[in-house]
Q: What sequence folds into this?
């Protein structure tokens, strides 16, 4: 696949595989973005670009690099390798951080409270999937769940769609509607999904953290 130029990426705007940042607010926030790309389809982070696509430039490339080093060195588990390059656009320095989809996913981002959280990319947002803390479930249980074919298919679907019903889910993975309904309710109990409609048919979406 031909590599896109920074100008091409800016023109296409933010989305599943692209995010713009005026500057890196904190290593914690950037760790979340990097992890979400690695856990989904990979992506590019452009620093020095406004949400609108306006070219602002970075004040200090060294300062941005230090935050990236902190994020990748201390706040991402298992560790990830990223590619960083910079370019002059309209006389302003813009940084591009490329993240490949990881064969070692899921990766966790460590937050300010020292909690390890899995993030995935949904449209143009980095969304957390809460750890399964109910009934003593462990990280290994979560990794096993996320690795299952049905759940991977469901998450892929919900990256592009806002919600899913049991009827739609049953068709996607070719199981009975009743079984699909049980799976969706189970995922809601485990705080992976959020029930957004209690009327029939019930609808579920990926759970958003506050």
A:
């Amino acid at each position: 696949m031909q590599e896109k130029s920074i100008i091409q990426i800016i023109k296409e705007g933010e989305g599943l595989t692209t995010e713009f940042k005026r500057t890196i607010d904190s290593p914690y926030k950037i760790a979340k973005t990097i992890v979400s790309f690695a856990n989904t389809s990979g992506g590019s982070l452009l620093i020095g670009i406004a949400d609108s696509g306006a070219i602002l430039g970075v004040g200090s490339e060294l300062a941005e690099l230090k935050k990236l080093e902190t994020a990748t060195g201390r706040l991402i588990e298992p560790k990830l390798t990223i590619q960083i390059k910079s370019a002059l656009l309209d006389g302003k320095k813009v940084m591009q951080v490329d993240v490949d989809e990881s064969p070692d996913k899921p990766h966790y981002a460590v937050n300010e409270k020292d909690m390890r959280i899995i993030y995935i990319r949904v449209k143009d947002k980095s969304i957390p999937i809460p750890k399964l803390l109910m009934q003593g479930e462990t990280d290994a249980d979560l990794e096993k769940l996320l690795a299952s074919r049905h759940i991977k298919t469901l998450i892929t679907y919900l990256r592009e769609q806002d919600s899913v019903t049991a009827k739609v889910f049953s068709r996607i993975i070719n199981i009975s509607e009743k079984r699909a309904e049980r799976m969706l309710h189970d995922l809601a109990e485990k705080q992976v999904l959020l029930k957004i409609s209690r009327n029939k048919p019930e609808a579920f979406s990926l759970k958003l953290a506050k």
Notes: The longest helix spans residues 61-74. Residues 131-137 have pLDDT under 50 and may be disordered.
